[in-house]
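Your task
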Amino acid sequence: MTFTLPNLPYAHDALAPYMSKETLEFHHDKHHQAYVTNLNNAIKGTEYEGKSLEEIVKSSFGKNAAVFNNAGQNYNHLHFWHWMKPHGGGSKLPGRLEKKINEDLGGFEKFKTDFAAAGVGQFGSGWCWLQVKNGKLEISKTANGENPLVHGATPILGCDVWEHSYYIDYRNRRPDYLKAFVDQLVNWDYVDELFGKV
């Protein structure tokens, strides 16, 4: 199986002013493309060739850094583009998701605060997550291309806190980027769709 870079589900300028056309041109067209290219090269002639992306992520963790790093980042970014949409965010969540956030995370406002804190608190490059583990919603963070799949959880929302995700638009203001992500960009219907599959 050869992996390819899918088109963005919206125009490059559709998330402005919260995420600029320039950021998406670099982040999607160059960074994500590099993960896809490097993954295809890394799995040639290995045990990972022919496996699904999720299988590669799980089976290469701790065993093959070149494969895992590029598979993890490919997986993360395939969802990342769909975790955002033009005119996203807001406070109106799908009912079952809102109920679960209230039950497990103390309400939507607390979730937003804690999710952003996880992203701000991730030293260096990585991700912050809303994940499902053992039937409960949790907030977590991981370094580099790691994700909840390798820790027995299912990610249903993730925010990329590598500098290439926000530096063009926000410079060193990671908290402002995370606030804009949650308040203005999150595609809650997609989050709810993933939640329904867990």
